[in-house]
Amino acid sequence: MKGRDWRVKDSSQEETTCPQGGTEGELSAQPQAHHNCHCGKMGADHKVLSSGLDGDPTEHREPSAVIQWEERQQELNQEVMEKMREEFHNRPDNFILNLLVASVQFYSNYNREKAEIRNHIRDREMAFDRKLEPSKRKVLFMGGHEEISGTHVLYQPKEHPYMEVPTPLQFFVVHDNIDLYAESQYEELQKRQYTDLDGPGYRFCTEYSNRHKGTVGGA
Questions:
Q1: Helix residue ranges per DSSP H, the chain
Q2: How many Cα atoms occupy the beta-carbon half-sphere of 28 within 13 Å?
Q3: Helix or strand or coil: residue 183?
């Protein structure tokens, strides 16, 4: 094939003509180049390839669900910041009024209660850390705001005789050394001894549940 009219083949074996020039040999000699021309219609299973560190073409795969969730969170945070900036520049009086209402409605004194919340979280974590010190574990306390400032906000649902029940306190236990293994390795774990760890190691095996589908962790 000659001239400035070359064709690109996708996985559906359909040929697409691109008028930007080049030859078929030139295209195959540059696997790392991205073809961004949309003159022709590519197949539905077309995959974009790029060159890896060793020169071999690598396939671009869709990111994991965790990465997608983090990216979505960043997008939402960015949208909130943009709305706040827009309100600050276009309606500064509303922006300041919202901050004043929030500080009065949810805090009796913002600076004092902020320090009280920080100290309360620290004291609760230190108290639990002392109890868990023999097992080399720590906790992260997720409360404080509800206990200190939550008393100023009393919410009662419409057409309901009782107020909202306070949310339960949340603690996260931090383990320094945790190993997860398959159920088939349970006997092998009984014979293992760790000598290079500062604290105890917690070893868990996954057990398949016949009653409820899924896996349940068991020590």
A1: 24-28, 65-90, 92-106, 110-132, 145-148, 186-191
A2: 8
A3: helix
Q: Are 143 and 170 in contact (CB under 8 A)?
A: yes
Q: What is the pLDDT along the chain (219 residues), one digit of tens a residue?
A: 444 444 444 444 444 444 444 444 444 444 444 444 444 444 444 444 444 444 555 555 677 766 777 788 888 888 989 998 999 999 999 888 888 877 776 777 878 888 998 999 999 999 998 988 887 788 888 888 777 777 766 666 677 666 555 566 788 888 777 777 777 777 776 666 665 556 667 777 777 767 766 544 444
CB 116 within 8 A of CB 148: yes
Coil, helix or strand at residue 131: helix
Q: Taking the model in full, what pTM does it have?
A: 0.40
